[in-house]
Amino acid sequence: MWEALDAVDWQALEGAGPDRPATDVPKVLRRIARTDASTDPEAVQRAYCDLQRLFPAPARPGADVATAALPFLVDLALAPQTPARHDMVDLLAYLAGHGEGGEADSVREAAWQRQWPRLRRLFDDGDPVVRRAALQLVADRTGPLLERWHRETDLSVRVPLLLALGRAAAEEDPTRSGRAEVRAVLDDALHGGDPVLRVAAVIAAAPLDPQSVLRAGPMLVEILTDPVVAPEFGAVWYTLDHEFSYERNDVVARVVQLLEPDMAAATSFVAALAEAGSRIGDAELRRCALDEAWGLVLTRPSAEEAVLALAAGLLADPDDDVRYKAAHLLAVLGRRAAPYADRLAALLDDAGESEFFDGTVGDHARWALTRIGDPRALPDLVERLVAPYRDMLGRGYGQSDPRQPDVADVLRPLRAHRGVLLTAVREALRDEVARAGWLVGDLREVLRAWGESPLLPGEPESSYAHPWEAPWPEPAQAEATVLAYAADGQWHWTFPTALDALTRRGHHTAAVREALTALVAADRRLSEYGDYRAFLQDEQIRAWIDRMPTLP
What we know:
mainly alpha
């Protein structure tokens, strides 16, 4: 191997960049060849990363460094002593997917054809991880996938094989025999004895038959809620584009995603998971059901009624995390949660916490009551909101977390109750100003929204900087922005300002009315956010739209 490696004129080849010359390729290949089972895994990973960096992502005109290195990459992938061989196979699959067309591509294709007899040996490798990685080389071809399916016995390879077969068959010419054979394989797996493979068959069939998941709903619920089967998913459920296995909850999320076009079916499936989780005492399953319910209602208003009932039914759950997420769901749904106000009020002193998120069950129950307009939320509200953040420099969160709302987002809508809350807000502001706390801006914004002075007695005007507001666009520009968002569904950051400008100015042409009518009728959340703010912004936008016909 090494004599052939030295025989290549690496200097004549174009590298991936000025700092990644082709002459580094043989050096890194030798580094990998010198590793063995005793080599530090981090050093092995660094070597693979360094090697991948030396190959251009798109093949470039002229001599192809990846093509020149191909025989040596295959040598290392086939050598049993090479550590992490699946990473080398992943690299081969990555390189196989790039071509530029023309003469250079024909040279590249010929090189791959010469290596194909050796590459085929990877499909019969003794390591299932290597066999699984090798499937990427034929992921779009039903013939080789079917050939491997009939010889493969390891479930951790059979699952991704089945999923790949469904995708490949869906993209293949319907008149070819491969699609019919794939359907037969999927049908056999669907009616076979392995429960994990049965679920995989349903998901694999979805690209060929979108109704397959709907028809299999009861079976999916039965298998996915079986406590004996649940751990098996994490052991064998792989896909070709992901290194690590997926757990049962990840598979549930994929099923819900496939059901989402039929919202009634999706919410029924999630409710069935929650019911089963309560029946068998599986708190993880109940948490999973609430997570999926959150994902549905975050983007689809049509899920609200079903999710409301689901969350309300779990408010008394013995698991803290379940109660936390249930109360959060009722809070974001606002006044729709009014029938459950008494249940929420019973949780005001609930100190249960979520494993990953800030606040308590009682905090979310209190916020839910403020959203409903229930006065039971008002006593000590300001102190409870401010106290957790007195010693913090700020707070961190992810955009999709069911986190506590910002202080301003809770208090700003409570202008009607400012007679009860005003003194507490001013006291909290005085304390924050004295300590240079980070809630100063939030509290000033609340006072301003209530029509009160954002300044403390004796404070100079310079103490308060009005928050920046986007200027109103001209009517024609505002109309174009609104029409664009209504047409393509892609969020335009100026959309709220444009819509507000049109409604306040009374500039609502027939085209705008028609577009907004369609927008309101569409089953989508009108917001740019992925957390609780999506509901607040959606409510504000719909309120602006609702007032348009009343303008002169």
